[in-house]
Amino acid sequence: MWVSWKALFRGPHNLALGPTGDALSYHAGSPFSTRDHDPRGRPRPCAVAYTGAWWYRNCHYANLNGRYGVPYDHQGINWYPWKGFEYSIPFTEMKLRPQRD
Fold first, then answer.
1. Mean pLDDT by 10 residues, the chain (101 residues)
2. 1-11+21-100: what fold?
3. What is the DSSP letter of 9?
4. Which of 7, 13, 26, 68 has a Cα-to-Cα distance from 100 of 20 to 30 A?
C-alpha cells in the first residue's frame, strides 16, 4: 500500500530516532514541495534553494533529498540535530510501515 506524500507528515508520529535527535518534528504538517511545485507559492521555493524535494517548512532541519557530498551552505544531505548544516550525510534511508489501528 502506497502512502500519499501529502499525508505522510500529518497526524501523530512514532519516531525511533536514537542518538541523532529529532529533525522531523519541525516539518510536521508541511506540504511536500518540489522544484516545479511549491504549494506555498514562495518567490524562491526551498526545493529550488536546497535542490531537493521535501516537506519544507521554512526551510529545513532535515533534508534527506539534498545534494550528495556538498558540505556547505545547507545544500547537502542534512540532519541538523546530529551533524548540523555543514555536513553532508553519505547515506540515508527512510523506512515506513503501515499504521496499526
1. 44 57 85 86 84 85 87 86 89 79 69
2. Gamma-fibrinogen Carboxyl Terminal Fragment; domain 2 (4.10.530)
3. T
4. 26
pLDDT at site 4? 46
Please tell me the total number of residues recorded for the chain in this structure: 101
End-to-end CA distance of the chain: give it in Å, rounded: 15
User: pTM of this prediction?
Assistant: 0.69
Encoded amino acid at 39, one letter: P
Calpha distance 4→42 (Å, rounded):
23
Calpha distance 6→81 (Å, rounded): 24
Nearest to 85 by CA among 94, 95, 93, 75: 75
pLDDT at 3: 41
Give the closest residue to 90 by CA, choosing from 74, 80, 71, 72.
71
Report whether 76 contacts 83 (CB < 8 A): no
How large is the C-alpha radius of gyration of the chain?
Answer: 14
